[in-house]
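It would be a great kindness if you could assist me with a short task in structural biology. A protein sequence and the structure tokens that stand for its backbone fold form the material at issue. I should value your view on which stretches of the chain appear to form regular backbone elements. The record follows directly beneath this note.
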Amino acid sequence: MYEGYLPISKQDMQERGIKQLDFVYVCGDAYVDHPSFGHAIIARLLEAHGYTVGIIAQPDWKDDASISVLGVPRLGFLVSAGNMDSMVNHYSVSKKRRATDSYTPGGVMGKRPDYATVVYCNLIRHTYKKTPIIIGGIEASLRRLAHYDYWSNKVKRSILLDSGADLISYGMGEHSIIEIADALNAGIDVHDITFIDGTVFKTKNRDLIYDAIELPDYDEIKENKRSFAQSFYKQYCNTDPFSGKRLFEPYGGTTFVVQNPPAKPLTQTEMDEVYALPYMRNYHPSYEKDGGVPAIREIKFSLISNRGCFGGCSFCALTFHQGRIIQTRSHESIIDEAKQIIQEPDFKGYIHDVGGPTANFRAPACKKQMTKGACPTKQCLFPKPCKNLEVDHKDYIALLKKLRVLPGVKKVFIRSGIRFDYLMYDKDRTFLRELCEHHVSGQLKVAPEHISNTVLQKLGKPSVEVYNSFVKAYKDMNKKIGKEQYLVPYLMSSHPGSTLKEAVELAEYLRDLGYMPEQVQDFYPTPSTISTCMYYTGLDPRTMEPVYVATNPHEKAMQRALIQYRNPKNYDLVHEALIKAGRQDLIGFDSKCLIRPRRPKKDAGTSYRSSRQGKKAPAGKAAAGKMVTAKHKKKTIRNIHKKK
């Protein structure tokens, strides 16, 4: 018996005196009993409300028996693909199979199927015809209505239809899962559970749907990209728990998928209760023989302080999943968890992170959000900060100070992203000083994503001028406190709106900065984001204006290569991109040029390095060893003058 962990076998059930579980949770991730994992939160919360829950982690989807190891649950199966969409987990943006899976014991790839939620549900239905199935997690949440699927390049139906499940609990799910459990426990048929916020149900009875906005029929949006964009934007404008309306999507006029309004955000007391549940804070001991679950390393010594994000980046699905209203834990709750972390035998004194989707958001954007919700068609930070935006870092500063002085803590890092624009809108520079002085270790990662205002507008990010002002403020603050610390900018290539012209602009910016990023993220079209809608339709759903989209793999490779133009391996792609963009002026020997000209064919013996210097490389090994570059010659001349 693995004391403290939830049952994963019949033997575990017997040792706990459980004849039949109330719920069986089937998950695409390994069982990690930590509040950074959705399955742990939902299972522990149900347990706290008196329900018994067992975990079937990563069942063999090719074996019917794998789904029966805990028997039939009394109330229903809960199914999730895991902490990531299974397709993002399996494939890179170039659709190549990833080599490892951090959510699997030993990092082994292939322990879950593609489209895991659908496959698991079909596996359950094959054996248990009538047992209720409730699906949740990020895969189900972001595919709850018809959506563009990048990997198949098709518009797919609601996952509720393809999976054969009865309900979706979308978003974070704490409120809705308890209401669903209580309804099932009260004897209400799962098909009659149509009234819970934060859920999606299906019906053939149009009369059941009331006070709702009708979306275009699936057949229409599948064939008409304009209709798809319009439908998506209606969904986007109804993601707020206070102002969001009920939506329904017809399928051939005979089946209807109905999305109830989002569940209300958790209060601080509720958030504290969720994180105070009796998690074991580690992966299940049965995985020890396989080397454990790699994902635990990133979060074991990190603290979640908030949820939600009012940043509104176009490429981010948080609006559809956690929402735009910030929910926070109390200082006491976070400090209690920090004290637990300190007691861990392998804790070395470093808290790796204190944050969430955006680390420096510790309150709603304005007072009205907690009663009237976030504005459906306006953003808090973009394109300019809203006049009602309240910028205040005092609470976050106070929290960080309390954590720094805990016995056993050497340093508290902030590794989840900060919104540099929000920081710059704070006229008080105390947080910037605290950040540089105490919470950065040499490098701070920030995400400008791009520097072309044309692209930034599509990204939903502030203008490059805001980023430039932050770069200066960060540099000045480090100089003031006597530290040498650097910024590491995250950059994205091929986002909708980016042509080769904008990609060249970014390369020139990096040239002037004297920086070449080691990694570049090519835009990845994942379900339920504005950017993915733009990628598929070629339209900005907010304005319905056309947007340029780079979909050709070769053009995407050129845009990516431009960001790393100094890498010799990218020379051919960069050369081709500059020619196509009409920027031959950036090919030459001037300091403003990105690359040197190609060497003439007659100079076949000239090395790439010497051609960049306009000098032939001597033939033969001996001569190669004596080669002196122009730069070295200048240095030698300077030394001679010094000696004189």
The first helix runs from residue 10 to 15. Residues 604-644 have pLDDT under 50 and may be disordered. Residues 8-194 form a domain with the Rossmann fold fold (CATH 3.40.50.280).
